[in-house]
Design a protein that fits this description.
Blueprint lengths: L1 E12 L2 E9 L8 E2 L1 E4 L7 H13 L9 E10 L2 E15 L2 E2 L4 E2 L8 E11 L9 E3 L13 H9 L3 E10 L12 E2 L4 E2 L2 E2 L3 E11 L3 H4 L4 E3 L5 E3 L1 H7 L5 H9 L8 E7 L1
Parallel strand pairs: 1-6, 5-11
Antiparallel strand pairs: 1-2, 1-4, 2-3, 2-9, 5-6, 7-8, 9-10, 11-15, 12-15, 13-14, 15-18, 16-17
EC number: 3.6.1.56
Catalytic activity: N(6)-methyl-ATP + H2O = N(6)-methyl-AMP + diphosphate + H(+); 8-oxo-dGTP + H2O = 8-oxo-dGMP + diphosphate + H(+); 2-oxo-ATP + H2O = 2-oxo-AMP + diphosphate + H(+); N(6)-methyl-dATP + H2O = N(6)-methyl-dAMP + diphosphate + H(+)
Subunit structure: Monomer.
């Protein structure tokens, strides 16, 4: 099952950068702070279109597809479900409340499904060589009330690192009591009186990608219209043949690096 999720939505106010998350009010994921997104419907032209549609439905925000990019691909499996969920993760790196299309100021608003809130994630660093640089501070991100895997990849994603990963979830018998003390697991039973269905992660594979000169020859770097090199998650997926169910299963269970552009392989099982 394919899902489109706009998980990183950044806004710069004065010298502070902010991350927009939504508190899920009902359904799967209730009680968790999360990005905005959901299933790809038959009327959606792409996972990106689905992410933007869900963002509009869950927060009231209209964002152009030119302002977001895919930064990661995740596959989720559950012990209680035989289905594998493929999630396309997108980022809107620099959002502003002025909508140039409508000519109006817009801010996220509450909906039946999500309660949006901004979280400060660091201050801009005054550097003449790269004015967009900022010092990341994750201390205000509510990881204890998010999906347990978010703390693994979200900090790197906020710094512009691309990634791919597989995570296997098992429902916990009791909140805050994983079957093994070293397991990645939920540590909160509720958020603002919204109960959390607790899960632990007994197995996962997560890889981060660092584009390099060698990656260009492997078809992972795509050139923009101005010839600026840009890392492509879809090209990476095709390069590793992860669109194939058999190859995806092999990749999920393999601990070997497959390409020279990969870095910091994390495996726990």
């Amino acid at each position: 099952m394919k899902n489109g999720q706009l998980v990183s939505f950044n806004h710069t106010s004065s010298s502070t950068r902010w991350l927009l998350l939504g508190l899920k009010q009902r359904g799967f994921g209730q009680g968790r702070w999360n990005g905005f997104g959901g299933k790809v419907h038959s009327g959606d032209s792409s996972p990106k279109a689905a992410a933007l549609r869900e963002l509009k439905e869950e927060s009231g925000l209209d964002v152009s597809d030119e302002n977001i990019e895919e930064i990661g691909r995740l596959w989720f499996t559950f012990t209680e479900n035989d289905e594998c969920f493929e999630v396309h993760v997108f980022m809107c790196p620099d959002w502003h409340p002025f909508n140039s299309t409508t000519g109006q100021i817009q801010w996220p608003s509450d909906t039946d499904e999500m309660h949006p809130s901004w979280f400060p994630i660091g201050a801009l660093v005054d550097r003449s060589d790269d004015p967009s640089t900022f010092s990341l501070d994750i201390s205000n991100i509510p990881f204890n009330n998010m999906w347990p895997d978010d703390r693994l990849w979200l900090p790197k994603a906020l710094l512009g690192t691309h990634f791919a990963g597989w995570l296997h979830f098992t429902r916990m018998l009791q909140p805050s009591k994983p079957s093994h003390p070293d397991l990645l697991a939920d540590c909160s039973a509720s958020t603002n009186a919204l109960n959390i269905d607790p899960y632990e992660v007994p197995a996962y594979r997560l890889e981060f990608f660092s584009p390099s000169d060698g990656a260009k020859h492997n078809g992972v770097i795509e050139a923009e219209e101005d010839d600026t090199p840009k890392f492509s998650i879809q090209s990476m997926v095709q390069r590793l043949n992860l669109d194939s169910d058999d190859e995806l299963r092999h990749w999920m269970n393999s601990k070997s690096r497959i390409g020279p552009w990969m870095s910091e392989l994390l495996v726990f099982a």
